[in-house]
C-alpha cells in the first residue's frame, strides 16, 4: 500500500477469487502468450528491500500486486515453447492467474515425483542454489581442520550451507533464533549449534573458533563478532544482512581486522552465479533430498491471502524453514 524505508512491513489487503465463481478463463486473450495458474509462491527476505524507497532498487510498484519466485501450471498457451499442463518457474506476480508473453523469462520446470513443488522454491530452488553456487565459487572445498560459522542456519540457505560445509569436512558452528531451529541445524550435521538470542555468539566463537569461514546471512553486530573471532586469511561469504532490512543498519566497528588478518570478503547475488551452477545443482541436489541424504524444512502457508503474513514471518524469524505460500492444488 505504501513504500516504507524502515520498520516491519504491514500486511495489506488481498482479493481472492472463489473458484466457485467460475472465472471464464477460456476467453482471456493471450496474444501469442500463455495463461498460468499459480500453484506455489516463495516468500524471501529480499522482498522487504523491494518495499523501500530506494534509488538503487526497482521495487514493487504501488497499486500493483507484489511478486516473487513461483511455480504455476500452464492452462492455455499460444506460445510454441509451452503447452497446456506444462509447469513454469520464475518471477510471478501474486495473483491466482496471470497471462505472460511468449518472450517471458518464465521457464519450463519438471519435478521429481517424490518432491513437492514447494521444495522447488526452497532446497531445490533459488535459496538452495544460492547456497550451492556461492559455496562452490568461494569456499575451500577441502575443509578438514577448518571451522565454518553459519548464521540464520535453519533457513533454506543456511541449512544447505551447513550440509555442504559438513560434506567438505569442516567443523560447523551454526546459530539460529530459537531452540527448535537449533535442533534442526544439529539434524543437518552442525557440530556446535546455539540460539544466538539466549547464548553469547562471542563466547561460542571464543570456545570453538577461531573461524576460517563465515557464511553471513545477517550482517550487523554478529558480523562484527565474526570478524573479532576470525582466523588469519579467513573467508567471509557475504550472502545477506537481514539484521538491517527493517531498521537502522549497524556497521561493524572493527573493519581494520580485514587487513590485519588478511581476510577476504566475497559478496554476491545468486542471479550472477546461477547460470554457471544451475545444471550441476539440479543434477546433484534433488536426488539427495529424495534419498534423505540432505535435510530440509518447510514453513507452508495456505492461500494467496497469507502472502503478507508470510513476508512478515520471514522478517521476524517466525518461519520454521523455507516459507512458501501454497496458492492452489494442481
Ligand atoms: P530464512 O528463511 O532463514 O529467513 C530469514 C531468517 O533470518 C529468519 O527466519 C530469522 O531466523 C533470521 N533473522 C531475522 N532477523 C534477524 C536478525 N535481526 N538477526 C539475525 N537473524 C535474523 O531466509 P533465507 O534462508 O531465505 O535467506 C537467508 C539470507 O540469505 C537472507 O539474508 C537473505 O537475504 C539472503 N539471501 C541472499 C541471496 C543472494 O543472492 N545473495 C539469495 C537468497 C537469500 P532466526 O530465527 O534464526 O533469527
Question: What's the gist of this structure?
Answer:
The chain is α/β, with parallel strands linked by helices and 330 residues long.
Tell me which ligands are bound: NADPH dihydro-nicotinamide-adenine-dinucleotide phosphate
- Gyration radius, in Å: 21 Å
CATH architecture of the largest domain: 3-Layer(aba) Sandwich
How much of the sequence lies in strands comes to 15-25%
The structure class reads: alpha/beta
**What's the rounded overall pLDDT mean?**
94
**How many structural domains does the protein architecture include?**
2
Give the SSE order as H and E letters. EEEEEHEHEHEHEHEHEHEHE
Silhouette: globular
Structure description:
The protein has 330 residues and is of the alpha/beta class. It folds into 2 domains: 19-122 and 297-326, Quinone Oxidoreductase, Chain A, domain 1, CATH 3.90.180; 126-271, NAD(P)-binding Rossmann-like Domain (Rossmann fold), CATH 3.40.50.720. Helices cover 25% and strands 23% of the residues. It contains 8 helices and 13 strands. Strands 1, 2, 3, 4, 5, 12 and 13 form a 7-stranded mixed β-sheet that branches. A 6-stranded parallel β-sheet has the order 8-7-6-9-10-11, sandwiched between helices. The longest helix has 18 residues, at 274-291. The chain is globular and about 65 Å long. It starts with 33 loop residues before the first strand and ends with a strand. The mean pLDDT is 94. The structure holds NADPH dihydro-nicotinamide-adenine-dinucleotide phosphate. NADPH dihydro-nicotinamide-adenine-dinucleotide phosphate (NDP) binds next to α1 and α2. NADPH dihydro-nicotinamide-adenine-dinucleotide phosphate binds at residues 44-46, 127, 130, 152, 154-158, 176-178, 181, 217-218, 239-240, 242-243, 268-270, 314, 317, 319, 323.
Amino acid at each position: 500500500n505504501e513504500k516504507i524505508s524502515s520498520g516491519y512491513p504491514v500486511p495489506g489487503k488481498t482479493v481472492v477469487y472463489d473458484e466457485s465463481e467460475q472465472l471464464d478463463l477460456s476467453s482471456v486473450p493471450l496474444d501469442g502468450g500463455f495463461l498460468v495458474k499459480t500453484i506455489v509462491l516463495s516468500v524471501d527476505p529480499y522482498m522487504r528491500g523491494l518495499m523501500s524507497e530506494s534509488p538503487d532498487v526497482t521495487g514493487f510498484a504501488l497499486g500493483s500486486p507484489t511478486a516473487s519466485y513461483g511455480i504455476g501450471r500452464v492452462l492455455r498457451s499460444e506460445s510454441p515453447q509451452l503447452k497446456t499442463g506444462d509447469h513454469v518457474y520464475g518471477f510471478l506476480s501474486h495473483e491466482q492467474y496471470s497471462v505472460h508473453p511468449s518472450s517471458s523469462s518464465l521457464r519450463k520446470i519438471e519435478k521429481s515425483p517424490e518432491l513437492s513443488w514447494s521444495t522447488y522454491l526452497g532446497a531445490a530452488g533459488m535459496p538452495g542454489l544460492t547456497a550451492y553456487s556461492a559455496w562452490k565459487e568461494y569456499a575451500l572445498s577441502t575443509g578438514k581442520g577448518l571451522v565454518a560459522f553459519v548464521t540464520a542456519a535453519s533457513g533454506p540457505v543456511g541449512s544447505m550451507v551447513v550440509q555442504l560445509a559438513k560434506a567438505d569436512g569442516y567443523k560447523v558452528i551454526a546459530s539460529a533464533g530459537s531452540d527448535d531451529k537449533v535442533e534442526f541445524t544439529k539434524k543437518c550435521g552442525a557440530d556446535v549449534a546455539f540460539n544466538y538470542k539466549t547464548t553469547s555468539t562471542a563466547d561460542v566463537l571464543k570456545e570453538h573458533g577461531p573461524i576460517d569461514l563465515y557464511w553471513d546471512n545477517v550482517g550487523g553486530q554478529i558480523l562484527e563478532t565474526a570478524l573479532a573471532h576470525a582466523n588469519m586469511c579467513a573467508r567471509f561469504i557475504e550472502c545477506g544482512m537481514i539484521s538491517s532490512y527493517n531498521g537502522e543498519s549497524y556497521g561493524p566497528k572493527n573493519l581494520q581486522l580485514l587487513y590485519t588478518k588478511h581476510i577476504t570478503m566475497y559478496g554476491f547475488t545468486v542471479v550472477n552465479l546461477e547460470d554457471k551452477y544451475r545444471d550441476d545443482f539440479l543434477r546433484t541436489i534433488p536426488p539427495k533430498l529424495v534419498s534423505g541424504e540432505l535435510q530440509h524444512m518447510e514453513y507452508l502457508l495456505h492461500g494467496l491471502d497469507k502472502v503478507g503474513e508470510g513476508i512478515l514471518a520471514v522478517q521476524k524469524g517466525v518461519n520454521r524453514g523455507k516459507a512458501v505460500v501454497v496458492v492452489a492444488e494442481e
